[in-house]
């Protein structure tokens, strides 16, 4: 066990597009690819590095030089240290063990899939990579939804929802975190400001109750918010969710987030 390393796992049962670039979430995914990158962004909540990117296709892309390139994008861009895997027929697997993508709180990451040479086949894919936290014991839980926030009603969501899952009025969307841990460092990014005097308050939920981990996005100047030093504990067999409460009828927006799961090393 390495105290500062954890996994980011994803995949989709949707086929690649053989004629256009498409995007998906890095963590979880499961849903279809989209041509709108911002709809599938997820927010980094703590400093670290992403490395060791592995990809598996269910079928090969066709006949060489048919291929697909998968890229881990940083804040809507492919940068020098982006993790990139190109799988050329007849292969079905690939990896990037060279690049190391340094990330910081509020960075947004996405997965981009680009066809090469008009592939004959449209595979489905799963992937995984390693997150190396600057702080030992930290791992990340990433989420987001392009579904509109309600401007008057409290709503709920998974902590890692599949695209394009919308918010719900009841607490039906929950995940089991799978370990005793401390949750902290909730970071929120919405696509535009709530408006003067308005806000959205996001709270992590544990076993149908509000936790201490709360982040607020407020006013006419900010699109981000975080929970600061607030933290809470999650026990075995306790499930989690996220809820959002609008205040003073904010402008309807959509939201993207991430938080930290911390376990004492050793």
From TrEMBL:
Q: What is the lineage of its organism?
A: unclassified sequences, metagenomes, ecological metagenomes
- Record-given protein name: Uncharacterized protein
């Amino acid at each position: 066990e390495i105290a500062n390393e954890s996994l980011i796992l994803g995949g989709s049962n949707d086929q690649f597009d053989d004629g256009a670039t498409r995007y998906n979430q890095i963590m979880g995914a499961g849903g279809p690819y989209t041509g709108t990158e911002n709809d599938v962004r997820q927010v980094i909540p703590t400093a670290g590095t992403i490395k060791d990117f592995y990809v598996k296709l269910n079928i090969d892309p066709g006949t060489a030089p048919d291929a697909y390139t998968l890229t881990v994008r940083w804040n809507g861009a492919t940068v020098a240290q982006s993790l990139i895997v190109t799988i050329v027929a007849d292969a079905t697997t690939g990896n990037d063990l060279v690049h190391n993508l340094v990330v910081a709180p509020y960075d947004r990451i996405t997965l981009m899939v680009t066809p090469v040479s008009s592939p004959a086949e449209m595979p489905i894919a799963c992937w995984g990579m390693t997150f190396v936290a600057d702080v030992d014991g930290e791992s990340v839980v990433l989420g987001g939804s392009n579904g509109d926030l309600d401007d008057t009603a409290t709503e709920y969501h998974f902590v890692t929802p599949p695209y394009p899952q919308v918010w719900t009025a009841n607490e039906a969307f929950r995940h089991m975190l799978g370990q005793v841990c401390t949750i902290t460092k909730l970071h929120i990014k919405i696509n535009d400001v709530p408006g003067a005097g308005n806000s959205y308050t996001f709270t992590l939920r544990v076993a149908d109750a509000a936790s201490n981990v709360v982040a607020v996005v407020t006013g006419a100047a900010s699109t981000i918010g975080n929970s600061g030093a607030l933290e809470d504990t999650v026990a075995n067999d306790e499930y989690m969710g996220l809820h959002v409460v609008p205040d003073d009828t904010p402008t309807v927006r959509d939201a993207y987030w991430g938080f930290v799961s911390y376990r004492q090393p050793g």
